[in-house]
Write a structure and sequence with these properties.
The protein is α/β, with parallel strands linked by helices. The chain is built from 2 helices and 7 strands, in the order E-H-E-E-E-E-H-E-E. The protein has a single domain, classed as Hypothetical Protein Aq_1857, Chain: A (Sandwich), CATH 2.60.300.12. It has a 4-stranded mixed β-sheet. The protein has a 3-stranded mixed β-sheet with strand order 1-6-7. The longest helix is centred in the N-terminal third of the chain and has 14 residues.
Length: 126
């Protein structure tokens, strides 16, 4: 039985990710629980953002890890997230911002029958 993904991406988000990969190489995503743009998903060059022991790995987007703060995950644990992109400049440190784009999250609640089939979470290994 195929596992249900916790994180997906729209085609426009995938296109932007591929463009960012060409420029920056390997990437990593993080969704914190901050206010305003701090609660938006952020994209970094891999190694430029330190994943902490209080972060939870939800899955991968185009082969790049997507992390969320554990506190934020408590609120979103029953929700499938879809990474999308919109025009506009956020005020975060995410690397897509200078392009006049910003990542955002769309969400839906998992159906009860999906819950036992969710992909496993992952955690920092150091």
């Amino acid at each position: 039985m195929e596992k249900v993904k916790r994180i997906l991406a729209t085609e426009s988000a995938k296109e932007l990710i591929h463009s960012l990969k060409e420029e920056f190489g390997d990437l990593v995503f993080h969704q914190s629980g901050g206010c305003c743009d701090g609660s938006s998903p952020m994209c970094f060059e891999k190694g430029d953002f330190k994943i902490g022991y209080s972060d939870v790995g939800l899955g991968t987007v185009e082969s790049f890890e997507f992390w969320m703060s554990k506190d934020q995950f408590e609120y979103w644990q029953f929700t499938q997230l879809t990474l999308d992109v919109v025009d506009g400049r956020g005020s975060s440190f995410s690397i897509e911002i200078p392009r006049g784009k910003r990542f955002m999250i769309r969400s839906r609640m998992f159906a009860e029958e999906e819950l036992p089939q969710l992909e496993d979470l992952f955690y920092k290994e150091d």
